[in-house]
TrEMBL record:
This is tryptophan synthase. Its EC number is 4.2.1.20. The beta subunit is responsible for the synthesis of L-tryptophan from indole and L-serine. Gene3D superfamilies: 3.40.50.1100. InterPro entries: Trp_synth_b-like, Trp_synth_b_CS, Trp_synth_beta/beta-like, TrpB-like_PALP, TrpB-like_PALP_sf. It is an enzyme of class 4 (lyase). Its cofactor is pyridoxal 5'-phosphate. Tetramer of two alpha and two beta chains. Keywords: Amino-acid biosynthesis, Aromatic amino acid biosynthesis, Lyase, Pyridoxal phosphate, Tryptophan biosynthesis. One of its GO terms (molecular function) is pyridoxal phosphate binding. One of its GO terms (cellular component) is cytoplasm. NCBIfam families: PRK12391.1, trpB_rel. It comes from Parabacteroides chinchillae. Pathway: Amino-acid biosynthesis; L-tryptophan biosynthesis; L-tryptophan from chorismate: step 5/5.
Length: 454
């Protein structure tokens, strides 16, 4: 009888995170101070972030960074997560491909986001911080940080993108259950929010707007730091526990992936699953393809421009070297709220620029079609975000069938969709549509960017 799940023991939880920047021949360009356009130093980040993550953000030399024992202890609540052979999906697709997925949906809040939330909350607590702020799109990151803040005795305020605040009331309830304050963004509680609401009274929000509000509150509140759920290097670092476990589990399965896939918003779950495998490509020349699956309505990797841009809408953050659609880009109100972000993290952007990875854009209806097929074959209803990775994996499996060649595919199931059933209701009722961005919209937004990279 073939093995369905490949399970590790608690002692197999990684003891260190993997810092891919140390192994990159071409390092990402530095963060820039928006006023001076000069590279930022580690201490420039201290007003906003804990010192530990500021150090991790700027670390370009250490390939391995130790996971604190207290964080590793809390990882035991749900880690290691299973690696699962998607035999039902393989059978349904009648493909020679072998499909595996790393099931990050088993965490207490239902997604991979807890891997970094616990680390960031721990470092804030260790530094004597009492309050933290953040933003959240679909609510997965906010839910994760709510749990983590409670675990380390911190007060948390979450700015939740307004469209998701209304689309996903139960995720808001989860955050409140863990003791967090949740504010629909844009709000009247910050200067950034008030300006946006004055200019656009019916604006449904974006991650860029919510980040502006959370950063502003952190800067104005004593003994308060800001925590971010994606995009920056230290977040990618913390998520590598996913791929490091998957490496061991693929060995247990007696296979090595030909292609590794993650859905893509800012890059956290994508980096988590792919960076440990990219390590073999960078250090040993191993032949592995890595694919980021992003929404067709927010296609920064496939149609954006590599340029310095702000990580938020109001321009409070450092300038990041990224593939971007422009920080003023307002994405459509798709249900994959966690992927509605205008830019890609600087590590991923550099890897993309160096052609060390690929990206595909997937239409909303195709993601739900893939999601329902996966649910029917594997018994797990996936988050709308994760469904982008599933759709890309199905494309790869169908290509293997056309070619008549075996192919080993690994993707990250970054979260479950049990709190996203309103989205499935709309899909099943035929009320969802595809949103695609016109070339004119992309060009118009990009034209507003200052061209720092010539």
């Amino acid at each position: 009888m073939s093995t369905k799940k490949f399970l590790l023991q608690e002692q197999d939880i990684p003891t260190s995170w993997y810092n891919i920047v140390a192994d990159m021949k071409t390092k990402p360009l530095p963060l820039l101070n928006p006023q001076t356009k000069q590279p930022m130093k580690e201490e420039d980040l201290y007003p906003l972030f804990s010192k530990a993550v500021s150090h991790q953000e700027m670390n370009t030399t250490d390939a391995w960074i130790e996971i604190p024992e207290e964080v590793r202890e809390l990882y035991k609540v749900w880690r290691p997560t299973p690696l699962v052979r998607a035999t039902g999906l393989e059978k349904m697709l009648d493909t020679p491909a072998h499909i595996y997925f790393k099931n990050e949906s088993v965490s207490p809040i239902g997604s991979h986001k807890l891997n970094s939330a616990l680390a960031q909350a721990y470092y804030c607590k260790k530094e004597g911080v009492t309050n933290i702020t953040t933003e959240t799109g679909a609510g997965q990151w906010g839910a994760a940080l709510s749990y983590a803040a409670k675990a380390f005795g911190l007060e948390l305020a979450v700015y939740m993108v307004k469209v998701s605040y209304h689309q996903k009331p139960y995720r808001r309830s989860i955050m409140q259950t863990f003791g967090a304050q949740v504010i629909a963004s844009p709000s009247m509680s910050t200067k950034a929010g008030r300006k946006i609401l004055t200019d656009h009274p019916n604006y449904q929000g974006s991650l860029g707007t919510a980040i502006s509000e959370a950063v502003e509150l952190a800067m104005q509140t004593p003994n308060c730091k800001y925590a971010l759920g994606s995009v920056l290097n230290h977040v990618m670092l913390h998520q590598t526990v996913i791929g490091l476990e998957a490496e061991k589990q693929m060995e247990m399965a007696g296979e090595y992936p030909d292609v590794v896939i993650g859905c893509f918003g800012g890059g956290s779950n994508f980096s988590g699953i792919t960076f440990p495998f990219l390590r073999h490509k960078l250090t040993e020349g191993k032949d592995v393809r890595v694919i980021a699956a992003e929404p067709a309505s927010c296609p920064k990797l496939t149609r954006g421009q590599f340029q310095y841009d702000f990580g938020d809408e109001a321009g409070y953050t450092p300038l990041l070297p990224m593939f971007t659609l422009g920080h003023n880009f307002a994405p459509a109100n798709i249900h994959a709220g966690g992927l509605r972000y205008h830019g890609a993290g600087s590590i991923v952007s550099q890897l993309m620029k160096d052609k060390l990875m690929d990206a595909v854009d997937i239409k909303q209806l195709d993601t739900f079609k893939a999601a329902t097929l996966f649910a029917q074959c594997e018994g797990i209803i996936p988050a709308p975000e994760s469904s982008h990775a599933i759709a890309a994996a199905i494309q790869e499996a169908e290509q293997a069938k056309i070619e008549g060649k075996p192919r080993t595919i690994l993707f990250n199931l970054s979260g479950h969709g049990l709190i996203d059933m309103a989205a499935y209701d709309q899909y099943l009722a035929g009320d969802l549509t595809n949103y695609e961005v016109t070339d004119e919209d992309v060009a118009k937004n990009l034209a507003e960017l200052e061209k720092i990279i010539k």
